[in-house]
């Protein structure tokens, strides 16, 4: 992919900050490379209007929502929390973040809160009052939530004194669609969005939104499947997000399908900005792991003794000789150091490495034992020293390799004078 993109470093840094460091400046450049040079400025405007939620923001929103629903929990009250969707989808992801909130961690609340993958498994007790919380990260069209409610919740709704939906963000149309189903839909008002290309939307202005919509639809048609109406007319209902949601919202761990496909699709060679599918994330993780392994091979050969002691702890004995090598923990700790210094959030680091958040926490603990991370999961002075040492070593080696290769391919003028001519010296 050619990265001949005309963009200054200041703009690139602003975009990376706007996206909460969920994606790197290089990934932004690769994404911009999907577009023609004349379209790059419009593409920059589009991602400048995106809203991305990080892990900390998600936990804070969830905690505030549950605190507002349950300011005081009575002795007989029980809370059932049910994520919408299959295991590994956004519902179970948001459940994990809920378990990290101070509301859930409070012993009193934890004893009265039950997390269930299915409402069929509720064990009702006499003299107990039950409140049901359906949990998901995003309301798009509202169709999935409505179908889930009608199929699974409607038949048992009389068992609860209240049924709430708790989410992080959503689209205005979807919010209106599901609101009549619940006691309350708990999403901050500032996190409810209009369609990106609505004529009353503030994203691109009343007069200017048409050119942005045209660009997104042009590529969105190529990135999504067509449908055929009863009259035989071909339509691209998802070219601007599932069921024409026109969303510009993403999360640190991925994008909803309601978001514009140009943001998350990888179809036909398109480079995603914030991927949606696990296949995309696995591909990113694979490429990143390759680059880390390359750097570690340089550090093993040319790094300082301090670097070799901390990142090559695996020992192999062959006869009387002992060799050091990098193991999974060494690899992961080095990767976390490198990504955290670049500004990636913990969830984004997990995505880059293709690991679970619990694995990330385990590697942080291992790094803490080595004096690399402190109690706040940040680099200690020793950890920072290791990072700077490794960075200098890699940069020095890369420059050396560059100049060596450069010299190898230069055409040299060689004057060859034979020592003998016609048998005479």
UniProtKB/TrEMBL annotation:
User: Mind telling me which InterPro entries this protein's record contains?
Assistant: PRTase-CE, wHTH-PRTase_assoc
Where the record annotates domain PRTase associated wHTH, the positions are: 335-423
Highest taxon of source: Bacteria
Report the Pfam families cross-referenced here: PRTase-CE (PF24390), wHTH-PRTase_assc (PF24409)
Domain PRTase-CE intervals: 30-276
Q: What is this protein called?
A: Uncharacterized protein
């Amino acid at each position: 992919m050619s990265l001949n993109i005309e963009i200054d470093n200041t703009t690139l840094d602003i975009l990376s900050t706007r996206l909460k460091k969920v994606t790197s400046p290089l990934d932004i450049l690769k994404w911009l490379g999907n577009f023609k040079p004349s379209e790059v400025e419009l593409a920059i405007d589009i991602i400048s209007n995106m809203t991305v939620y990080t892990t900390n923001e998600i936990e804070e929103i969830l905690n505030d929502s549950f605190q507002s629903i349950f300011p005081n929990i009575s002795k007989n009250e029980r809370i059932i929390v049910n994520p919408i969707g299959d295991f590994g989808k956004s519902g179970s992801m948001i459940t994990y973040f809920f378990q990290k909130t101070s509301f859930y961690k409070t012993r009193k609340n934890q004893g009265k809160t039950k997390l269930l993958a299915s409402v069929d498994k509720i064990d009702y007790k006499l003299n107990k009052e039950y409140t049901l919380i359906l949990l998901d990260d995003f309301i798009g069209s509202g169709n999935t939530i409505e179908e889930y409610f009608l199929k699974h919740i409607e038949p048992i709704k009389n068992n609860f004194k209240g049924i709430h939906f708790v989410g992080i963000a959503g689209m205005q149309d979807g919010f209106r669609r599901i609101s009549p189903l619940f006691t309350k839909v708990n999403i901050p008002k500032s996190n409810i969005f209009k369609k990106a290309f609505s004529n009353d939307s503030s994203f691109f202005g009343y007069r200017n939104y048409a050119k942005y919509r045209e660009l997104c639809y042009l590529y969105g048609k190529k990135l999504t499947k067509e449908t055929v109406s009863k009259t035989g007319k071909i339509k691209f209902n998802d070219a601007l997000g599932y069921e024409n949601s026109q969303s510009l919202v993403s999360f640190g761990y991925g994008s909803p399908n309601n978001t514009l496909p140009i943001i998350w699709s990888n179809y036909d060679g398109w480079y995603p900005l914030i991927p949606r599918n696990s296949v995309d994330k696995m591909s990113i993780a694979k490429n990143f792991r390759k680059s880390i392994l390359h750097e570690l091979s340089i550090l093993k050969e040319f790094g300082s003794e301090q670097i070799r002691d901390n990142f090559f702890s695996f020992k192999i004995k062959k006869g009387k000789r002992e060799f050091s090598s990098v193991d999974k923990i060494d690899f992961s700790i080095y990767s976390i150091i490198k990504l955290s210094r670049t500004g990636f959030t913990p969830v984004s680091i997990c995505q880059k490495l293709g690991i679970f958040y619990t694995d990330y926490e385990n590697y942080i603990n291992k790094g803490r034992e080595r004096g690399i991370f402190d109690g706040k999961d940040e680099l200690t002075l020793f950890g920072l020293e290791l990072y700077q040492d490794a960075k200098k070593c890699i940069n020095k080696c890369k420059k050396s390799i560059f100049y060596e290769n450069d010299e190898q391919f230069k055409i040299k003028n060689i004057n060859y004078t034979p020592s003998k001519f016609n048998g005479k010296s």
